[in-house]
Input
Amino acid sequence: MESRGVAQPGSAPASGVGCRPFESARPDHYSSHSTHPTMIGVIGAASPPQELREVAYLVGKGIAQRGWILVCGGRTGVMEESAKGARDAGGITVGILPSGSTEEANPYIMCPIATNMGSARNAIIISTSKALVAIGGGYGTLSEIALALKAGKNVIGLKTWDVPGVVKAADIEHAFKLLEETV
Output
């Protein structure tokens, strides 16, 4: 059967970039209780200061270097910088978008998921992630933190809201030590 550039079941999309299949011989790609790759959420400001953009980039890079998949809101700011860091390190990025269009995803998102759910998409980011890293942020980030804590997810904070339940990391290295203990 001729494929005509359409992805067949069990194959990667015709573009060569996609979410499935993902097979790895590296056991660190998987959490201890799952056969699925570990997904780490990154949440934070859409318009952060430069200092937080740099932090987000390094967090994304570190996620990819550990073989984890980065999940974020797929748009600007912390989301874009963390996705850029992950992609620069050869990682996989998933963007859970608020609109019904994948076109609004930043250029570093490999798997854009159009939800047409607005801020309600935050629940998908939380549910999909094994743990989350909050970087800076405003009220949107605060709502994501609250959803994550209510869902029993571990939230590691880097220069973000001082909320009971968020584990504050002193720096990026400390954040990854905390994440590694979680997954």
Remarks:
- The first strand starts at residue 39 and ends at 44.
